[in-house]
């Protein structure tokens, strides 16, 4: 029993310590972001890496999520003849919650892992030290471009995933379940407010930040060879996913 | 003793200590490197030679002690001042540390790209010239993963000298090279010193190279510099530890376990 308390206690302490370090790292990134000049070539390359490469997985995730949402809500709504409101549910859920959260999870698996692995490898093979010796700050040169790319690409990805998700719901409802397309479309848009879209995009922006900061932190402070790189990569994905899920709840609750 | 840290010394290390956990690697290192001199540091594997030069260039923060570069105490430098200082330095890493996402020419031209306004074409010209100095040609567009071990080392050396620094730190420049190529590199190090008056510290296990390039040789043992002298003085040293090391004998005061 005491063992358990000890374990919980030390885990909590470690968590607080890590959070502090990540926060310091975050401010370091911010400081270097606002210190000119910006390396546009690196930003572009990272934008490509984050955006183009995660687009397929995000789109596949979105269409199936939209489709299953439609199927699932239809089973319930049919019981009180409200089939057309499936459109409302699909659209609101996608735009406010599932679009940003699931995209965030996909991107942390796809891009966060990549960032942690690449930076971690650079760390253990002394490439980051080499940058210092070439009078180049690695946070500025390596991390800032990744941070900016993730920040701006996530909202874009979420816009795509919202559109595709809603289209997926439409396909299932209209083509498969035979809902009237005009009414379905109307119900989709009628209850949607601009605020819903803003919340979704705001979340996407925050999640992009979370993924970049946590993954870069894990990569940048890797130690212990190939094994260390593996650990950092796993941690990057696990921590950024958890932080996304938790912060999503709080953002939703605050904006309720 | 008017000026302890007279600018005759380009680098002066005083009572330097560094531990990793319980591993007390540097235990009070003292070392003077004169302007325009090549100081060769020898010593057993794991004695902290790499740690020593990483302290000098500010990659590792020592626990105690001071390092003077050109008369200035660098251990109290902030990140910005360190950055300024590093512009005077070139460093060859023991394992190359090439950027594996960039082709050879971008690796070698990295400093030029970051700190000068040269165009890519001009950078490539400089890169080709530096690569020829280290005995390489037509490798500009290869990726580091396509190079052999010895080639990587030489590309890394080309990167270290690309900005024509005043101070060069070479971590085992000839390890992994065939004897002829090793001598090309020895000649290059001598040339850089004679023509450009570069000050350098070279870490090596290669005694042939050490005797050839060194103005003076220092031996690191058990966390301290136990002897400094010209190659002649080292060769005729009466210190048994030094003798055992330079003759490469397994029998002697240096034992396997320490
Ligand atoms: N970043 C680090 N963290 C922990 N220990 C380290 C670190 N760097 C070096 N060490 C330890 O310091 C000691 C000296 O290492 P160093 O790399 O300086 O040896 P070396 O003299 O260069 O050896 P070699 O000739 O084999 O290159 C070793 O015991 C090593 O384990
Ligand atoms: Mg070494």
Give a written overview of the molecule.
Chain A is built from eight helices and no strands. Chain A is mostly helical. Chain A has one domain. In chain A, helix 3 packs antiparallel against helix 8 and helix 7 (194-220) runs antiparallel to helix 8 (225-254). Chain B contains ten helices and ten strands. With 258 residues, chain B is an alpha/beta fold. The longest helix of chain B has 18 residues, at 179-196. The A-B interface holds A 118, 121-122, 125-127, 129-130, 132-137 and B 54, 57-59, 79, 82-84, 86-87, 89-91, 93, 95, 97-101, 110-111, 114-115, 159. Magnesium ion (MG) is lined by residues 49-50, 94, 171 of chain B.
Radius of gyration of chain A over alpha carbons?
21 Å
Q: Rough shape of chain A?
A: elongated
Oligomer: heterodimer
Span between termini of chain A: 40 Å
Biggest interface between protein chains, with counts per chain?
A-B, 14 and 25 residues
Q: What is the molecular shape of chain B?
A: globular
Helix vs. strand class of chain B? alpha/beta
Helix segment tally of chain A: 8
Structural class of chain A: mainly alpha
Helix and strand succession of chain B? EEEHEEHEHHHHEHEHEEHH
> How many individual helices of chain B?
10
Largest sheet of chain A: none
**Model regions low in confidence, pLDDT < 50 over at least 5 residues of chain A:** none
How many runs of DSSP E, i.e. beta strands of chain A?
A: 0
Average pLDDT rating of chain A? 90
Helical fraction of chain B:
25-40%
